[in-house]
């Protein structure tokens, strides 16, 4: 059973920073790539960033590229999403998700929500103008 737990959301002013965490089991880190997605009411879940199983590859949506970093701490079984220069349009519920890749490093569908097998409960990020 894969369990993911997000934390770190909150209220921040535009231009500020937040660091979200996604804690997972050791097995998750061994066999899964991890993605971050976000969703606002009435809209589809949107890809934000992903990191491959080994951490050697990272991917970003154009909307966050250059101001967001995804990285993992294998010793803590945690993936982090560091978001800087936040904008009001970044306001959303942020979810981390795990996609099984086995002995591979990443999948070609890292940006596709339906490719992911497990999801966390989400954490709210609100950016005030």
What general form does the structure show?
globular
DSSP strand (E) fraction? over 45%
Contiguous helical run count: 1
The helix fraction, in percent, is under 10%
The Rg value, from CA coordinates, equals: 14 Å
Largest sheet: 7 strands, mixed
Please state the structural category. Answer: mainly beta
Please give a handful of descriptors for the protein shown.
129 residues, 7-stranded mixed sheet, 11 strands
Description:
- Helix content is 5%, strand content 47%.
- A hairpin with a 6-residue loop joins strand 4 and strand 5.
- The chain is globular.
- The chain starts with a strand and ends with a strand.
Summarize the topology.
Blueprint: E1 4-7, E2 10-13, E3 18-24, H1 26-31, E4 32-39, E5 46-51, E6 58-60, E7 68-73, E8 78-83, E9 92-100, E10 118-119, E11 123-128
Provide a compact summary of the structure:
By secondary structure, this protein is mainly beta.
């Amino acid at each position: 059973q894969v369990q993911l737990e997000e934390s770190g959301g909150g209220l921040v002013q535009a231009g500020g920073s937040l660091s979200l965490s996604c804690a997972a089991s050791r097995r998750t880190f061994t066999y899964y790539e991890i993605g971050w997605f976000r969703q606002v009411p009435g809209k589809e879940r949107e890809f934000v960033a992903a990191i491959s199983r080994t951490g050697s590859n990272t991917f970003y949506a154009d909307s966050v590229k250059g101001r967001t970093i995804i990285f993992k701490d294998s010793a803590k079984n945690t993936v982090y999403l560091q978001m800087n220069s936040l904008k009001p349009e970044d306001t959303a519920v942020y979810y981390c998700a795990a996609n099984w890749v086995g002995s591979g490093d990443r999948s070609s569908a890292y940006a596709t929500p339906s490719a992911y097998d497990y999801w966390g409960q989400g954490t709210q990020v609100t950016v005030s103008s």
